[in-house]
Fold this protein.
Amino acid sequence: MTHHLTGLIAAPFTALRPDGSLNLDLIEQQAESLLKNQVTGAFVCGTTGEGVSLSTEERMQVAERWAQASRGRLTLIIHAGHNSLPDARALAAHAQRIGAQAVAITAPTFFKPAAVEDLLAFSAAVAAAAPALPFYYYQIPSFTGVALPVYDFLAAGVGRIPNLAGAKFTYENLMDYGRCLRDGRFDMLFGRDEMLLAALALGCRGAVGTTYNLAAPLYHRIWKAFEAGDLASAQADQARAMEFIATFARHGGLPAAKAMMKMIGLDCGPVRLPQRNLTARQCDQLQAELEQIGFFEYCSKV
C-alpha cells in the first residue's frame, strides 16, 4: 500500500484527571494546539499516550474523541499494539470504524517474537482487522525489548500484509532506518526527536514524537534550515532540542514531559502507576533548568 505521511506528527499525552480517570474534554484543546503549531497529525495512545497503561475500552474512548476533535484536520494514527492478539485486532478494527487514517502496533512485550516470522504473523493478523487502513509497525526496542531488523520485517511483509505501509522507527540504528528508506517502498516515520536532523540527512519525510507537543516551532526551524541548506542553523537548533530533552530525561522522562505541558499552558494531569509524578519541588527545579537553557523562548504555543 503506497502511503506517505509528511512533516511533524505529535504523539499526544493522554490527559488524566487527578483521580487517574480519563480527561477526554481536554483532547479538543490538545488538537487545537497541534494545529496552531502546524503539526500535521497525532499518533494516539502510543508510548507518550500511556497506551499500555489504559484499558482497551479507555483506548477506544480516547481514539474516538481524537477523531471527533480533529474533524479531518489532523492525520490520526491509532496505536493498537497489545500483548493480547484479540485486543489488538479489536483496537485496529475500531480505528477503522472511527475514520482514522492509519493504524500501528508495537511488538508484543511479554511473550516476545523471537524471529521476524513470528512478528510478521502477529502483525498480519492485526492488520487484517483493519484492511482499509495503512498499517505501520512501531519499532521501539527501549520499551518492547524487541530489536528485530525493521528492513527484514518490511521486506518479508510485502505480499503478506496487503495494507503494509511502513514503520514508526524509534531506535538509534540508523543503518536499518536508512536501508528501509533506500528501498523506496516504505513510509518510514522517524521517532527519535533528538536525532531528527540525522534522519533528515538520510531522507526522512515524516517524524512522530513526544516533543512535537512541546516545541514544534523549534523542529520546524530545524527542518526548514536543513531544506535550505543551512546546516549550521539546523545543527544549532538540533542541539537546543537535545539539551531540553536531556533536561527532562534527567527528571524522569514522561512524568517530567507531562509536567512541562502544564508549564506551557496545557495541563494533561498525572501519569498512571507505576510511573511517579514529579513533586512540586521537582517541578520547580525542572522549570528553573528549562529557563536556564531558554526552552520557553521556542516552546509550542497553546
